[in-house]
């Protein structure tokens, strides 16, 4: 079994123990696979940027994901991935993101109207669920031009089930993937829900037609060349962007709201900047709060690559075929690069502080050629939502402090109940 049982029980605790006990480079065995963890920013830079061509996504974790999310931008690799990225990239151009701002503001305003009703009767809200709902609405509107509110509950359950079930296979792939049983039936039901949702989105666009310069228009374009996508490719990209485009942002926002509400000085500054002229493009104090939340609780908390050929990293040999693992969760808390690494302090992301750190000491959106295609959109969306909430409400926790749950993404375990107080 190697380290499989320890990792399966609590991967965050296991990774933390490895780093504290063995340092920046750790070798382990996971069932039949040889693993090497690299936690130092220079090592991460080597894997994700300097020699990234030697580290592929041909490993079991992505194989497990493909039946659910397909062969989209997250799971694809090589020339196929590059062609897909080049096709979708124009939809995330900065000028296009500025156009998206109205939809972001509209969805946020509708959420705050619901919150006002809750506040009037003193009822708490589950902030984790609310962030999932509003980010799913935004992704549906700005990327695909559809209103997903009627499907939000079903889609949310499907994504949650996929997140939990795929993680259970990743950490303990026994019984074999697809083995008949409750876990497989539940996963199949979640995939069927998403397939139905995607088909509705595609059918609606094809029925009404028109090029809206959004992602869906790009995916459905057919200019007679080989550049176009098959129906299966379209489905895979939509599911990938829906999952990656709302789950990660919702998690980051939930942690940011909770951490700000439990640090009075941070909350005061956030309210002051949001009420003034804070920037909505990832800068300003709202952006600093979000970056610090993603430092401590990065949504993409860990991911791997497979070494295509033998290599050397930091003086250590890497055999061909080794599964090489990096973890923003661990590197973001590296004591050589972060003073008081477990303390929540948004001032770490003041411009004068950022310039003093190695680039790969902080990589919540990954980095190098495979950096998240929607990182700028995500920061624009999240700072806008966080600032709007801070202008309208003070939030106070009702439930115990949330515990991080290390699934495909790092999300709070269970509800995050908070009471709303109008400002």
Number of strands: 12
Summed over residues and divided by their number, the pLDDT gives a mean of 89
The CATH architecture assignment turns out to be Orthogonal Bundle
Order of strands, main sheet, comes to: 1-2-8-5-3
CATH hierarchy, class: Mainly Alpha
**Radius of gyration, Cα only, in angstroms?**
21 Å
Q: By helix and strand content, what is the structural category?
A: alpha+beta
- Helix content, binned percent: 40-55%
Uncertain regions spanning at least 5 consecutive residues: none
Tell me the domain tally: 1
C-alpha geometry: globular
SSE layout and pairings?
Blueprint: H1 4-9, H2 11-22, E1 25-30, E2 33-38, H3 41-50, E3 55-56, H4 60-69, H5 78-88, H6 94-120, E4 125-126, H7 127-144, H8 152-171, H9 182-208, H10 215-220, H11 231-261, H12 264-275, H13 284-296, E5 303-307, E6 311-313, E7 316-318, E8 323-326, H14 328-331, H15 351-354, H16 375-392, E9 393-397, E10 403-406, E11 410-413, E12 417-422
Helix pairs in contact: 4-8, 6-7, 6-16, 7-11, 8-9, 11-13, 11-16, 12-13, 12-16
């Amino acid at each position: 079994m190697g380290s499989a049982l320890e990792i399966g029980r609590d991967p965050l605790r296991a990774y933390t123990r490895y780093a504290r006990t063995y340092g920046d480079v750790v070798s382990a065995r996971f069932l039949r696979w040889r693993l090497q963890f690299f936690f130092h920013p220079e090592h991460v830079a080597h894997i994700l940027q300097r020699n990234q061509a030697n580290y592929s996504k041909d490993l079991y974790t992505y194989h497990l994901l493909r039946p659910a999310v397909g062969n989209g931008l997250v799971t694809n690799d090589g020339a196929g991935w590059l062609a897909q990225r080049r096709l979708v990239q124009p939809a995330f151009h900065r000028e296009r993101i500025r156009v998206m701002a109205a939809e972001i503001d509209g969805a946020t305003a509708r959420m705050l109207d619901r919150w006002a009703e809750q506040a009037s009767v003193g009822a708490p809200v589950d902030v984790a669920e609310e962030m999932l709902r509003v980010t799913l609405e935004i992704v549906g509107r700005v990327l695909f031009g559809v209103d997903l509110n009627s499907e939000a509950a079903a889609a949310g359950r499907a994504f949650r089930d996929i997140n939990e079930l795929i993680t259970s296979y990743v950490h303990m792939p026994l019984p074999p993937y697809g083995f008949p049983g409750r876990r497989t039936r539940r996963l199949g039901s979640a995939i069927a829900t998403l397939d139905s949702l995607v088909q509705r989105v595609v059918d609606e666009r094809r029925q009404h037609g028109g090029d809206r310069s959004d992602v869906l228009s790009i995916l459905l374009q057919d200019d007679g060349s080989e550049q176009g996508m098959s129906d299966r490719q379209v489905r895979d990209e939509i599911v990938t962007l829906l999952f990656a485009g709302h789950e990660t942002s919702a998690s980051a926002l939930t942690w940011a709201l909770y951490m700000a509400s439990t640090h009075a000085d941070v909350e005061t500054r956030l309210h002051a900047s949001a009420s003034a002229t804070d920037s909505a493009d990832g800068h300003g104090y709202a952006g600093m709060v979000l970056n610090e939340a993603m430092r401590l609780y990065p949504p993409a908390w860990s991911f791997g690559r497979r070494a295509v050929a033998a290599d050397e990293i930091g003086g250590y040999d890497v055999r061909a075929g080794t599964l090489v693992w990096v973890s923003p969760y661990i590197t973001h808390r590296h004591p050589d690069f972060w003073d008081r690494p477990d303390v929540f302090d948004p001032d770490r992301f003041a411009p004068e502080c950022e310039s003093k750190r190695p680039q790969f000491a902080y990589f919540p959106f990954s980095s190098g050629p495979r950096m998240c295609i929607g990182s700028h959109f995500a920061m624009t969306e999240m700072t806008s939502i966080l600032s709007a909430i801070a202008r309208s409400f003070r939030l106070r926790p009702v439930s115990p402090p949330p515990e991080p749950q290390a699934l495909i993404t790092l999300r709070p375990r269970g509800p995050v109940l908070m009471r709303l107080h109008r400002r």
